[in-house]
TrEMBL record:
Its EC number is 2.4.1.25. Keywords: Carbohydrate metabolism, Glycosyltransferase, Transferase. Pfam families: Glyco_hydro_77. It catalyses: Transfers a segment of a (1->4)-alpha-D-glucan to a new position in an acceptor, which may be glucose or a (1->4)-alpha-D-glucan. GO terms for biological process: carbohydrate metabolic process. The lineage of its organism: Bacteria, Bacillati, Actinomycetota, Actinomycetes, Streptosporangiales. It comes from Thermomonospora cellulosilytica. The keyword Electron transport does not apply. Gene3D superfamilies: Glycosidases. The keyword Transferase applies. This is 4-alpha-glucanotransferase. InterPro entries: GH, Glyco_hydro_77. Belongs to the disproportionating enzyme family. GO terms for molecular function: 4-alpha-glucanotransferase activity.
Amino acid sequence: MADEQLIRLARAHRVGTEYIDWRGRRAAVPPDTIVAVLGALGVDASTPAAVRDALAGLEERRRTRLLPPVVVYRKPGAAGPPGDDELPVPGDGVELTVTLDGGETLVLLGRRRLPDDTPYGWHRLRARRGSHEQAHEEEAALLVAPNRLEDVPRAWGLMTQLYSVRSRASWGMGDLRDLADLAAWGARELGAGFVLVNPMHATEPAAPINPSPYSPMSRRFAAPIYLRIEEIPEYAALPDADRARVESLSAPVRRSVRTLDEIDRDRIWTLKRTALELLHRRPRGTGRQRAFDRFKEREGEALTAFATWCALAEEHGPDWRRWPAELRNPQSPAVAAARERLAPRVDFHLWLQWQVDEQLAAAQDAARRAGMPIGVVHDLAVGVAQGSADSWIHRHLFAEGMSVGAPPDEFNQRGQDWGQPPWHPGRLAEAEYGPYRAMLAAALRHGGGLRLDHAMQVSRLWWVPEGGSPADGTYVGYDRDAMLSCLVWEAARAGAVVIGEDLGTVEPDVRDDLASRGVLGTSLLWFERDAEGRPRRPADWRETSLATVGTHDMPPITGYLHGDHVELRDRLDLLTRPAAEERADHRRQLADWLRLLHEEGLLAAHPDKIVQALAAGSTDHDQEITDALHAFLARTPARLLGVALTDLVGERRTQNQPGTSHEYPNWRVPLADARGEPVLLEDLPAGRIRGSLTAVRDR
């Protein structure tokens, strides 16, 4: 047990000293973990004397500092919570001056309330105490944010892992043209209002490529592996010989879409990159060159830094921590010299990002033109891989020696270590959340919505000291109001909806804060239970949420019905209790849900008979239960309903088994139907799917 002063110091830095686990029990954090996490934050807590000195330093800063790095003012509005009456800064004896983004200056003259007509956005706030030689001045960023996002329109949509949705024209995996076609098909044939996809974040620039979309190299930039080569304008002007070369590159991976072979990103990207290099060398007309120049100007230094990292990663590998020492600092003279030497490769990667940007825009445009009120909803991963582009470009903003993960929970009983460095809360605030804001703006630029994978990323993250067990980590808090206000402002500017995946162990007030700001939560059917552990009746579900049956970290409906997840985790040694107990518990929980579906009049057969049939391996009831679960979702008050494409076609295999890497083909499973046959985009059975979605479409 940590001593009292260490606990005081930890809490002052938002480092958890205890937490409530998934079973509702209080768990103490080991003192060694607390000391290690404080050390990663730049706070020496290695000895009692160091702890006393750190506490004294904190007290001195509190006494003398006038402003935090970022001041948030939630502008009162007509809807939602009342907003801020005053700026949350000291007022007694302090003169406050605001310089608006447009240059106008407001002197508040002893007041802390902003005028009602103060525009939203980022401004500068100056505080002054005293006069003449004794005056003390400080300046901070001021974010005037909307109090609340607009209400989300009721809609339902498709959820899919895009790489798994292949077409006859795609190069072995789903791409951005497939996304455009899927969105248009979903809107016109099914009446879908949105399509939620996996993160499009940037991957390694050369093989081998990590298949997980949730462990990217950058969250600010996108993955060119999702490009459709033939949609690039320069392709139309290729000479016959070059066009034949591109067609020969695509042929083998196009043939693979008719199989259930695992998606081979290394092979696909190697072939695509060769074709893209050929297109990049083609001359561009004046209009196209001007568009490219405008794109580079808009994205600025961050894009150049990312392209430089890509060029260096092609030479030295994607983990900058293993590069020659002189290249580990992006501002070093050695990096500047390398950028000049590698100028053609840097330009290639700049050009790739331009192409992805154009095709992302085309996908959202196709969705909206087809009638989707929301369109594409992008997914924002929790973080980036260790040694990634983002952690190189913004090295000082990440906490060294730490990895983000999750404590043990019902489905991951050993905890999780995601291998991702966390933002340093204090340094990110000192940087006025610049990289975070730019990342949000990029994610929202070509979409109608954004899903936050692990919504707690705006409030706290589970830090695991490198080399330690996930169970021995602790939560580290962020300035939730600042991060949430950045998110709300960027979403309001884009006119987008925001969904937070608030599953697992969540702080009690996080869901309330998200809802009060107009951010939807996530209601996952298998996890929706009341205080007594019984399945929650539809009328008792949250309105401010995206309601779904499952998630990409669980098997599709049919796989869950047959307990595939239990067998898989048993085979991979991921269970912490006997498999027989897991199977019995799964059957009990499933029977509870089937009884509720029966009581709601959504399931004709008796639940006990269905459970017996499922235990015997029968698939006779799979479609009936799938339809009943979707009809159940339609009875909830949830603003958004998400229906997985895997469930609509009868897929049984899960896309990802948490806690594994090479033991299971995570993120490499192509879409298949109940018979185990590949399903291509052109072959989606619209008629049967419409029947399964009758209740969802008519709600």
